[in-house]
Amino acid sequence: MIRQTLVQAIKPALRAPLLTCRTLSTSSTRLAEGDTGAPKSGGSAQGDAFSKREQADENLYMRQKEQEKLQALKEKIKEHKKHLEELEKNVEIQGSKAGKGAQK
């Protein structure tokens, strides 16, 4: 009796995922001749104004990113130089304290 009750309670829960699942279907995309998704190469790409502009935009974007990275590196170098100067001052102070202690 308990077994039948459990089976009746569990069956709808087991069937629910099967009812909500959908089959996966894909269709292949049809490409025209020469449409591979690869960038154009050769003479026709060089003469195309859109291609030239796109390439110029990419170059500008990359240059800006490189400038940002370079600026960040320069700032890190400044911070490290400042830290080194502080360390050198501390070493000089410690050295002068040690020298005074040895003279006494």
From TrEMBL:
Where is the region Disordered?
24-58
In its UniProt record, a GO molecular function of this protein is:
ATPase inhibitor activity
Q: Where in the cell is it found?
A: Mitochondrion
Instruction: Please give the chief subcellular localization of this protein.
Output: mitochondrion
Report one GO cellular component.
mitochondrion
> What sections of the sequence does the record tag as coiled-coil?
63-97
Which SUPFAM superfamilies does this one have? F1 ATPase inhibitor, IF1, C-terminal domain
* InterPro entries registered for this protein in UniProt: ATPase_inhibitor_mt (IPR007648)
Q: Which Pfam families match?
A: IATP
Q: Which domain of life is it from?
A: Eukaryota
What keywords would UniProt list here? Coiled coil, Mitochondrion, Transit peptide
Function (record text): Inhibits the enzyme activity of ATPase.
Which family is this sequence assigned to? Belongs to the ATPase inhibitor family.
Query: Could you tell me what this protein is called?
Result: ATPase inhibitor, mitochondrial
- Which source organism? Heterodermia speciosa
Its taxonomic placement starts with: Eukaryota, Fungi, Dikarya, Ascomycota, Pezizomycotina
